[in-house]
Structures are given as structure tokens and as C-alpha cells.
Specification:
about 110 residues, mainly beta, 1 helix, 5 strands, about 20% strand
Length: about 110
């Protein structure tokens, strides 16, 4: 991380929020006890979008947003599904989660 320069939010490559108020465990407990939880529906009837074409010709590119950070890229008769993983492990607990396979780097 020699290329990164220090700033008011980054020291030796480590980011931190210098404007964040200092909060402890008691603050979290107080917030949990006094927060106002809004309405959250159990089900939202969302209609699916249009189905993507099976394949496209070689001179066109079609990009379809799937969800979150996943995209379907179609070009030259090929379908490419992009679903990035930005960590070594996938899951709520890194020590229990499997590593993504295969490991592709471009």
C-alpha cells in the first residue's frame, strides 16, 4: 500500500471515520430499547422484468441488471453472468464460509 497517501481519513493504508462520535456498548443497548421500528411488509408483490433474449448477434452488446451487483452481459452469441465477490470467503462468518471456486483473476 505504498501508493496510498495519508489523509485525514487514511493512515498507512487504513481507513477510518474521523468524524464519527465515540459510542460504546451502552449506547447500542439504549438505541435497541428506545428505537422506533417502522412498518416492514411481510411480502411485496413485485412483478418480474422481461426475460432476456437467449443470445445476441456478434455486433451487439446487451447488459441486464439482475440484482445487487450481478449483471448478465450478452454479446457475440455468449452469455456472461457477472457476480463479483470482493472477499476471500463468502458467508456471514469468514471462518465457516467456503472459499469461492473457481478463483478467476483477469
Amino acid at each position: 500500500m505504498a501508493n496510498r497517501k495519508d489523509s485525514d481519513h487514511c493512515v498507512r493504508g487504513v481507513f477510518f471515520n474521523s468524524n464519527a462520535p465515540k459510542r460504546g456498548f451502552a449506547t447500542i443497548l439504549r438505541w435497541l430499547a428506545t428505537r422506533c421500528i417502522g412498518y416492514w411488509p411481510r411480502f411485496v408483490d413485485a412483478q418480474p422484468g422481461l426475460q432476456p433474449t437467449t443470445a445476441v448477434s456478434s455486433d451487439e452488446v446487451v447488459v441486464t441488471f439482475v440484482n445487487h451487483a450481478t449483471f448478465l452481459i450478452q454479446t457475440a452469441g455468449k452469455n456472461i453472468l457477472i457476480d463479483p465477490v470482493w472477499s476471500e470467503r463468502v458467508g456471514p462468518f469468514s471462518f465457516l464460509a467456503p472459499s469461492p471456486e473457481p478463483r478467476n483473476t483477469f
